Amino acid sequence: MSQGSVALTAAVGGAIRFALFGGAAFTLACVAHAEPAPQGAAAGGQETLAEVVVVGSRPIAESEEAALQVQRSFPSLVSIVSADAVGRLPDQNIAFAVGRLPGIGVQRDQGQARYVNLRGARTSWTTLSFDGINVVSPEGRTSRFDNVPSALAAQIQARKAVTPDMPGETLAGNVNIVTRDPFDYDGFDLNLKAGYGRVDLGDGDEIDSSLVMSNVFADGTFGVLVSGSYYKREMATDNFETDWEPVDRDATLPGAAERPIWAREHENKLYRLTRYNKSGSLRLGWQPSDENRMFLTSIYTQYRDDELRSNVKWDLDDRQSSTPNTPCASRPNNGTTVSGGASGYADVCTGNTPLRGTIYGIDFDNNFNDLESIESIFTHTLGGDHAVGGWDVAWRLNYTETKDGSDAPALTDYD
């Protein structure tokens, strides 16, 4: 059972199964014995049950075993993670989920997994697909995976070897999202997940929720599945960054065995951001027999990033070339004062050190940005699988629309 789902069922003999928020399942089973017949009751025509045994199943373990079976029978090198395995961990998007698999790395932005690289290759060499249909990323060649919520997936297949059925732009591998199917469930099924938290950086809200509902009709030949998810995260980044470099101009430092490392640039950043992930999907399936099935799938995902950026940067080595490269004793006042248009950068004669000092006349840059970016994927697939005269026939018709839009309603920049 997926993380966050809650189910309570009662069965014969008193067996009760309850799935907690964390995804852990508990099964209480007991053996119910039939009560003996009252004395004097007629024995004719009556049957006495010796015992009734209620056995609980382990759906999470069974789901993971099915994923391992697909992995073993796959024709190429692949790692697979099931939806139940994803649900047991706080993996909000696909990048988080596949990042736990071996041989896969992720690149993060503000702590959130975004890009996927397979076997150490460039992220632009990894492609994204839904049910085997390639999806063009809103960013172009480089596929982003943080705009695809993990709630959409029944399985996530990380294919680490290139095969002829992959898109031509696949150079390192492919991440295929196998979407949920109503025929994966027995009758009506409802999964809910709801989570709330506080982000330490900025003391903002974090909300994660999803819903999956499916049912089958017409003697199990027609199925409908709908799903939706919503994620929101508020946070702030307040940090100081300093870049360092070796400098030749401080060679007059007495007794220096090697060139010290001086601060080249210092930057103060304060980012306040709110990120949203929304998704919705619909799948209709018709399966009149084991040899024939048809389906229609529609999936929509949206990623939105609202940011307020305040950035202050000091270009400390802006006038490094003006620093005198002569011994301190040959300068006026033994070089203790800055003169001749020098800034004092990397000048030990003025008393400056790599960690402390005073610098004059350097470049100072300050900018404030109000940014809003939205990326969306809208994909529709009509397909079928048929067994005809010993042949397996599969066909797909797909239309996909991706959008990448950004806006900067407020922007200030001054030096």
Task: Give your account of this protein's structure.
The chain is mainly β and 415 residues long. It has helices at residues 59-73, 83-87, 94-98; strands spanning 8-10, 16-19, 25-28, 31-32, 52-53, 78-82, 104-109, 112-118, 126-130, 133-135, 153-159, 173-179, 189-199, 204-217, 222-246, 261-289, 292-315, 363-388, 391-414. The protein has a 7-stranded antiparallel β-sheet with strand order 13-14-15-16-17-18-19, with no helix packed on it. It has a 5-stranded mixed β-sheet with strand order 6-11-12-9-10. The chain has a 3-stranded antiparallel β-sheet with strand order 1-2-3, with no helix packed on it. Strand 9 (126-130) and strand 10 form a beta hairpin. The longest helix has 15 residues, at 59-73. It starts with 7 loop residues before the first strand and ends with a strand. The relative contact order is 0.10.
Quick summary of this structure?
Helix content is 6%, strand content 50%. It contains 3 helices and 19 strands. The chain has helices spanning 59-73, 83-87, 94-98, and strands at 8-10, 16-19, 25-28, 31-32, 52-53, 78-82, 104-109, 112-118, 126-130, 133-135, 153-159, 173-179, 189-199, 204-217, 222-246, 261-289, 292-315, 363-388, 391-414.
